[in-house]
Design goal:
single chain, 3 helices
Length: about 110
């Protein structure tokens, strides 16, 4: 899906503010296709108020992916990879620059 450069830059700023390096980022694999070639993933963090803040749309904007119509999960296609880590690595590289290190994020599968 195509997003504007302004939308992408604003989303990067928002993720830097909400999910700094060292933050716990939770993901939920909502669905896996029968062939195993596609997954729908939701991304969230726990805000200061203790409520979940969904980052799925933000991750989709930076990753350049569509949201699933049924459940608004980020759709990732492919086999032979850990889809959640792949997306997190890509988003962290885009948000923090190529010198960024996603491993500073704590990914937690719910």
């Amino acid at each position: 899906m195509k997003y504007t450069k302004e939308e992408i830059e604003n989303t990067k700023k928002q993720i830097r503010a909400l999910a700094p390096e060292g933050a716990k980022i939770y993901y939920i694999i909502r669905s896996v296709s029968a062939s195993g070639m596609s997954r729908r993933i939701d991304w969230l963090i726990v805000g200061a108020c203790g409520m979940p803040l969904y980052l799925t749309r933000d991750f989709a904007i930076i990753y350049g992916a569509k949201l699933n119509r049924e459940d608004n999960g980020l759709r990732v296609c492919g086999a032979g990879l850990n889809a959640a880590e792949h997306v997190a690595d890509y988003v962290a590289d885009e948000v923090y620059g190529r010198a960024g290190n996603r491993k500073e994020w704590n990914l937690i599968n719910l």
